[in-house]
C-alpha cells in the first residue's frame, strides 16, 4: 500500500478514530507547526510557492513569509502572510503572496514537495484536509485519514526543511524526518 493509514495506527493502539472528532476547522485564522524527532514546533513558511518549515525566515526565496490560514468555503486551507516576528527577530510578513491554497501531491504525482497554489492541478490535492483535534490529516481516495508529512533537510540553510509528502523511497542519507503538522504553537513561541 502506498500510504500508512492514520486509522490503522489508532487501531494498533487499541483506539479508533471517531467521526465525531474529525471535521473542518472553525473560520478563525491559525498557523501550522511541524513536530517530530528534533523538530519541536517549527512554523510553516511560504517560500516562492513551496512549503518550508524553519526556525527563522528562509533566506533562499524572494517571496517568503510565515503563513496564517483560514479555511476556504470548499475546504482548502487558504494562506496569507502573518505579522509574526521569527526567533531571529526578522519580520516574516514580507511575503507578497495572497490567498494561496496549501496542497499535497496526489497519489499519482512523482513529486513529493508540499506547496501553495491558486489554481490546483490534478496532481495537487487542496480539498481533502481534515482535522483530528489539532492534527492535520489528509483523506485518501479510499476514505482513509493519513499523515504522511516529512521534513527534508535543507543542505544550504541550517534549521530549514522542505515540507514533503508521502516519502516511500529509502532514506539512506538520513535527510527525511517523519513529522506531524499541528495548529498548536510550541510552548516556547
From TrEMBL:
Region annotation Disordered: where it falls in the sequence: 64-97
Keywords carried by this UniProt record: Signal
Signal peptide residue numbers: 1-19
Protein name: Uncharacterized protein
Amino acid at each position: 500500500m502506498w500510504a500508512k493509514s492514520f486509522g490503522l495506527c489508532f487501531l494498533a493502539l487499541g483506539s479508533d478514530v471517531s467521526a465525531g472528532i474529525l471535521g473542518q476547522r472553525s473560520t478563525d485564522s491559525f498557523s501550522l507547526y511541524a513536530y517530530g524527532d528534533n523538530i519541536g514546533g517549527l512554523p510553516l513558511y511560504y517560500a516562492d510557492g513551496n512549503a518550508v518549515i524553519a526556525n527563522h525566515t528562509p533566506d533562499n526565496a524572494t517571496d517568503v513569509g510565515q503563513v496564517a490560514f483560514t479555511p476556504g468555503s470548499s475546504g482548502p486551507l487558504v494562506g496569507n502572510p502573518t505579522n509574526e516576528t521569527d526567533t531571529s527577530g526578522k519580520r516574516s510578513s514580507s511575503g507578497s503572496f495572497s490567498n494561496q491554497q496549501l496542497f499535497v501531491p496526489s497519489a499519482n504525482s512523482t513529486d513529493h514537495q508540499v506547496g501553495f497554489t491558486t489554481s490546483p492541478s490534478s496532481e495537487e490535492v487542496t480539498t481533502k484536509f481534515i482535522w483530528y483535534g489539532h492534527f492535520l490529516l489528509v483523506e485518501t481516495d479510499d476514505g482513509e485519514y493519513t499523515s504522511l508529512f516529512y521534513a527534508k533537510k535543507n543542505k544550504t540553510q541550517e534549521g530549514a526543511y522542505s515540507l514533503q509528502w508521502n516519502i516511500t523511497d529509502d532514506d539512506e542519507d538520513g535527510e527525511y524526518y517523519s513529522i506531524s503538522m499541528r495548529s498548536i504553537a510550541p510552548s516556547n513561541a
